[in-house]
Known about the structure:
Elements: E1 26-35, E2 40-42, H1 43-49, H2 55-62, E3 68-70, H3 87-113, E4 120-127, H4 136-144, E5 151-156, H5 162-176, E6 181-188, H6 200-206, E7 212-221, E8 242-250, E9 258-263, E10 268-273, H7 277-294, E11 303-308, H8 313-323, H9 331-340, H10 347-358, E12 366-373, E13 377-384
Parallel strand pairs: 4-5, 4-6, 11-12
Antiparallel strand pairs: 1-7, 2-3, 6-7, 8-13, 9-10, 12-13
Helix pairs in contact: 2-6, 3-4, 7-8, 9-10
Amino acid sequence: MTIVMNPPRTDPLEPSTAHRPGSLSAARITGVATAVTDTAYTQSELLDIFRITDPKVRSVFLNSAIEKRFLSLPRRDADGICLPEKQSELLDKHKDLALDMGARAIERCLANAGIDPGDVDYLCVTTTTGFLTPGLSALLIRSMGLRPQTSRVDIVGMGCNAGLNALQATAGWAVAHPGQVVVMLCVEVCSAAYVIDSSMRTAVVNSLFGDGAAAVALIAGPPDTPSPSAPAAPPTGFGGPRILGFASHLITDAIDAMRYDWDDAQGKFSFYLDPHVPYVVGAHAEQVVDRLLAREGLRRTDISHWLVHSGGKKVIDSVRINLGLTRHDVRHTTGVLRDYGNLSSGSFLFSYERLLREDIATAGEYGVLMTMGPGSTIETALVQW
């Protein structure tokens, strides 16, 4: 595979899809919440459970900057050996855990925003760890008792960058329907998307990902005026910013660098990460971020808050160095990686939730959200409190 490390010429500026200067409405994030599975494991515990003795594989786990991850492990036999799971069993795991985590994340998100579940008008669900028809959006509407007329969409298979792809779609819907309640859910059961063998390929993947769900609620109204259906005074820490716009970049020369495809030998899907991914993403980070900021006449120094996908230690370091960020700028990103691992599409929202809990964002400040994933793709969003 040939990967271009020097980013191509910056594309001409295109208009934002979520907000235009002088527009009458903008989508505002009014609530956020997360949920995980029941049990967390340290990296050392996982090595012991799976009886991994290869020094190189053990090094990958123990030098990942991850302390623990929430996972749902296979059943074990009388000798404590993990039993193999067929693809059908993994799909059942995806369905059961996604519905459980997803419902809890949505319920908490709406409670934080002061919104009744019966007021949800649109539900967008994104996932990569399983394929279902009908999709999770329909199953959640039924299981949670949301209104049957709730509009919905499922975004499946886009990977770790998908949270911002989905946020762009939901923000656009919110702007087109001012005053209506929009919910976006990222739910990933990475326990249902693994292969265990002796290769370094699977070791990198198995050392990194964790289970988790994150939901946000959006409402569009005039930029400086709450929409009629929005709560008058959201709980402290959960008043959210306006979404000003998005910028994307597809690194076509690295389209095979991250992929989730069928493994005939294992009889299940398997995820692949090229070892050059961190450097490829880092080399293109400046281009897409600067294009995002230029639309609003901003520079990187104007950004108070950076919420980057917890893609892995090397990915975070590469992005941080290429963008000239400090370790403090990415403290929530590294903290989420440490405590949860890579949560795929919802990782950046776990970081966003931590920022809100700090309660330090003030009116007028800008933030950049950034995700990276298969394509290889970099997605960004600009927000303002």
